[in-house]
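[09:14] KT: can someone run the structure on this one? pasting the chain below
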Amino acid sequence: MSNKTNDDRLKILQERLKQLKERDEESNNVNHSSSSQEKENQNKIDSKKQEAPNWGLEKKEKKSSRWIIYVVLFGIIALAQQYFQWDLFKKDIVIDTEKIINESTEKIENIVYNIDFNSEFIAIIDEFKNESSAKALVNNLTVQGYKCSYFFLPNKSNSKQEIYNVYIGPYENKLELKQWCNNIDNKDIKIIN
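[09:31] RB: done, structure tokens below
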């Protein structure tokens, strides 16, 4: 009986070990499958964590690169506009300097008048390129009480400029002429004896 009992005991023990092994394997499988699921879940979470900041960085990078592109484009447009405005400004300067050179050469010319007023004084108060403008100014000044008239410059001087000069006078002395000139708006008045 002792043998049987030992054999029985051995069988029972082996069965029991077998059951324990199976349980361990099942628990390992369950643990393994649950741990693999946990690992997969953890990997998903990690990948989501990694992806989320990347998405934000990509968006930030895109936003910052767009911003830089906008600034560069704005700068290029502003520089182009300044260049074209400067180019136009330079052309205006050239035109203006040509006018100034022409005007200054005309004014430098010493004009000798051949007007005979018997030692009386006149003041040239304005000049016009057309005769009708000169006549209109003479009419306005006459209405205001001035003694005035006009003449064609090449006929009364050595100048070749084809302009009409409007003058006030003649007056007997320079002082009287200056008093009449003080009431005229034009400050470019030339007194002739």
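[09:33] KT: thanks! The mean pLDDT is 76.
[09:34] RB: yep, looked fine to me
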